[in-house]
């Protein structure tokens, strides 16, 4: 009990102390009021009035400040809302980008794994390619050796076949000779057969007319699509025959410049043309390895001569008979064809490809111009080489015999045009010009019917005309827009025709 009383006393003391402190605080707080109450009421009234006015002004300022703060609060609330919306959108964008980054990382890891696999595969392929390359080189060496051996075997086989063909041709010739003798009823008939060539040659010499220097383009026609590389005049006629890349043969009236007819059936580009002596047949050398023979009267294909193994680039018909035709191809062979029987009667093998050829005036010799620049004479019966001369320093592109048969004009890639005496194979004249450039390996030049003029085309689109007597250029014909590939002089002395690479033909008078 004593302890409880003591505790109560201590608590009462603390409570009394707290009441005293509170009383002192309240006295300090109410001190201004006591002082003010102790003052006179009149003086306190003026002070209160002034304080009231000040407080009213402060209250008004507070109201104004509160209005501004309210407006600012509204603006800031709107901005806060928009910022919150923007923040939400950006949070969403961040989540989307995080997802995309996650996917990109996963894709990157997959691509990295795929790249490593492909690198390993590439290394493996490189190793395999190296081994395959070594095997290819070995196979290439073996193939080259086999090709060389095959070429040797083919040459031997071709030579054997040619020998067999020669023996067969000799047997056929003997058989035909015996049959002709059996059918011959009199010595007079034999005599007429022997002098037939001489009579025809004398008739040709009598029909030779003088030529004039061309200077004017009378007609200009677009003859063939893709180009025209071969033109030829019909014997003793003004009709021009042309062949081109469009696989057609066309006949032109040079007097009017109009198309007279078409010959169809060629299966390749026409590289050269020939007309038989009787002007009844046209022969075309084709890039399809064949020759095509048309009948001029009906316009139908009479023969398709097969036997060459490469493109046929040159053809000519005998000047004495309409029976025999000779051709050359890029298989290094020259073939003699019998049009009455429609097959090859003789094959000649040359060491160099032949670009151009022609019959001699007696019909017993073939004159050929080759890629190696040589001019060669062959016996038509035996196929033996009779003579050979270096005609040009580069490939021979053209051979054009004169109507008299005494001389032959050759052109070459050395841009020279030579006249050879067929009896001695000696050069009679050489023609050249600074601007004259032979356009291709099959560019054809020509000589006039009286042997006095020479015409040749050039890469600049001009046709150059030389005088044989003056040995100089007497005319330069300008009318083409592309290289001139072929020239032909009518046996009537005029006109002259020229064909260019884009298929246009010009008729000059």
Protein described:
- This is WD40 repeat.
- Residues 45-169 form the Autophagy-related protein domain.
- With 509 residues, the chain is of the alpha+beta class.
- It folds into two domains: 57-177; 211-508, YVTN repeat-like/Quinoprotein amine dehydrogenase (Methylamine Dehydrogenase, Chain H, 7 Propeller), CATH 2.130.10.
- The chain is 39% helix and 31% strand.
- The chain contains three helices and 28 strands.
- The chain has helices at residues 2-38, 41-183, 187-206, and strands spanning 217-222, 228-233, 239-244, 249-253, 258-263, 270-275, 281-286, 291-295, 301-305, 312-317, 324-329, 333-338, 343-349, 354-359, 365-370, 374-379, 385-390, 396-401, 407-412, 417-421, 426-431, 446-447, 453-457, 462-467, 472-478, 484-489, 496-500, 504-508.
- The strands form seven sheets. The protein has a four-stranded antiparallel β-sheet, with no helix packed on it. A four-stranded antiparallel β-sheet has the order 2-3-4-5, with no helix packed on it.
- Strand 3 and strand 4 form a beta hairpin.
- The longest helix has 143 residues, at 41-183.
- It starts with a helix and ends with a strand.
- Mean pLDDT is 87; it is low at 185-206.
